[in-house]
Amino acid sequence: MAVITGKAPGKIILFGEHAVVYGQPAIAIPVAKVKATARVFPDIESKPGRISLQALDIGLDTHLSDLSPEHPLAAAVYLTLETLQLEHIPSFVLQISSTIPIAAGMGSGAAISVAIIRGVSAFLGRPLPDSKVSELSYEVEKIHHGNPSGIDNNVISYGKPVYFKREQPIQFLKVKKETHWLIADSGVKTPTLETVSDLGKLHAGNPQYYDGIFHKIGLITQKARQALIEGDNPVLGGLLNENHALLRELDVSSPELDRLTRAALDAGAKGAKLSGGGRGGNMIALVSATKIDAIKKALYEAGAVNVISTKLAKESQA
Ligand code: PMV
After folding, report:
1. What domains lie within the chain, and their CATH numbers?
2. pTM score, whole prediction
3. Which of 97, 230, 276, 312 is deepest in the core (most CB within 10 A)?
4. Over the stretch 84-100, which tens digit does the pLDDT of each residue have?
5. Ligand 1 atom closest to Cα of 19?
6. How far apart are the first and last CA of the chain?
């Protein structure tokens, strides 16, 4: 048996984070420049069923049986094995690595689960379809996040731009015109679980006020869907700025994220906002192709620790 590799991209949320947890729509796109990889290869020296896990980036080198079933890496393996229901499981080594920044709003947890589920199911001769990969990685997301909306596992499993609403069939977006985006890391690590749970408490204390903000964000996301398909940069830019202002009202921004969005706009970005859980992690800016270098420079000068440029490519209409 050869080495089998399972891969998954990172992602950014363009519109609707947090509101999506409360039933509003959100838009996310995959980011192929960063990825999680799971390499699976046979372990011919061990007795059958022995599964070794190595994630050397985080200093993990162990056996599946030594990890709690609740451990996110172990959970992804167990869920895959339960789904496949194989009588015989050969021994194998699972090596996990990722270039997706952790706790930065780029979906690193979901991408690692997706890569594991893909790699292990393919290694065992039964590669699972994207829909099943998404479903299983959502189960793992629940361990990471408590109350995940499901957007991360969907955009990462399918690797396509999505318009996502809880409990509704996923819609894939096919854009008519390409758009360019910069993703700047504030360098502050904030687990999504923390911001989602803080906001949960605020919402419980004043549901009417917070539902009002979520509703406004939902309307922005609906408008953004069409503007993104049409590649209407002036409209998209304005909507990004409005969404960021509402995220500030939800108290999920931070001085660093506000400084980076300001710097991007001052350097000529069409719009900018925080992306993902917030308080730290990444912000995004919509930019014209000719201004990418200048805005990147401005973001570094304003304190970004890393800036990635990505393009949402044009796709023919279905
Ligand atoms: O921080 P990220 O990229 O995992 O994004 C979280 C998005 C939230 O809307 C805040 C949570 C969710 O489950 O949708």
Report:
1. 4-164 (3.30.230.10), 175-316 (3.30.70.890)
2. 0.94
3. 276
4. 999 889 999 999 999 99
5. 9
6. 39
